[in-house]
Amino acid sequence: MVLRRPLCLWTPRPHQYACRSMRTTTMQLAHLIHEVEHNRTDYFQVNLPKKSGVGSQLHCRPHRAPLVLVDSSKAFEFIGYRVLSRLPANIPGVNCRRWLRKFLRGRYAKTQVGNRHGDRSSTLRGVPQGSVLGTHFCSPFTHTHFSICRTASQASQQTCTRMTSPL
Q1: C-alpha–C-alpha distance, residues 1 and 56, integer Å
Q2: Residues 62/137/163/33 CA torsion (nearest 10 deg)
Q3: For the chain, how many structural domains are there in total?
């Protein structure tokens, strides 16, 4: 079951990627992160059987969205790295913060391979096309994205612009 709130706030529309007032991608990403984080602190109670097998015990389970779909080719087009560098303080999880710092440090994009103009050039914003790392940004609550795939070759064949990640 997909949590409806984040998807309602972040439904892909053509105008959301333009720099219109209150319709920027930065704003939509902030809404999405806020909504997912808000639901991490919301709990429901379930009765689970005890280890001894006699009776049941009340446990608290957090409400979490099991699925978030992100189009990385458009999600980070207009977000500068200065904005992204401030996000790790708001993102839970040591692994995600560490990965994001490494991802943002010393970013370079190459032009065509084998071309005389194929030198390294600085990338100031966006996720380069073909970047597998870009899809991991929006899965801060998972240990690894590849655990949902059966094999590494299947994971490498996934489209980098579309991510399916359990939360």
Answers
A1: 26
A2: 50
A3: 1
Which residue type occupies 4? R
pLDDT per residue as tens digits for the range 75-132? 555 556 566 566 656 666 666 666 666 655 555 544 445 555 555 555 554 444 444 4
Q: What is the DSSP string of 69-138?
A: EEEHHHHTSS-BHHHHHHGGGGS--HHHHHHHHHHHTT-EEE-STTSTT--EEE--BS--TT-SGGGGTT
Domain region containing 91:
4-41+59-110+120-165
DSSP H or E run through 31: helix 25-40
The answer to the question of residue 47 being in a domain is: no
